[in-house]
Design goal:
By secondary structure, the protein is α/β, with parallel strands linked by helices. The protein has two domains: 59 residues, Double Stranded RNA Binding Domain (2-Layer Sandwich), CATH 3.30.160; 81 residues, Winged helix-like DNA-binding domain superfamily/Winged helix DNA-binding domain (Arc Repressor Mutant, subunit A, Orthogonal Bundle), CATH 1.10.10. The chain is 32% helix and 15% strand. The termini are far apart.
Amino acid sequence: MRTHTIIDSPVGALTLVATDGVLDGLYMRDHARMPDPATFGERAPTGFERAEEQLAEYFAGTRTAFTLDTAPRGTAFQRRVWDLVAAIPYGRTRSYAQLAEALGGGDHSVTRAVGTANGRNPLCVIVPCHRVVGSDGSLTGYAGGLARKRYLLDLEAPAEVRLF
């Protein structure tokens, strides 16, 4: 059964979605490429406590990694990209090209495919797609908007954004 809840955060309302109690979606308000909310199931007052607690700790600066059961829905390639993104350490960034190279292909088409997969990440913040930047360190594309991406990077590295 699919359920959802909506919580407040410093980056605005977050919608958490779970299937049979396993988190498979976390979307920001005005999230680009967000699925139709009608597919999120009924709004549930319970069942998201661990995710809510860990997100609150993250935004308070006391949590650097999430320990939640998740099941993001995507193609095999997308899941490989999301696994690489999930492995980017707190306070660090990687470029799209670096992720493409890690997948065994550094050419432009693979880099573009990595960007597309990253843009379809259904678990923003938890799978930290905000940590993926342009090769020159520039902030590029973020489904939650570049202002939120900057906020999350600043939260993780308040003095400076540590690249690569």
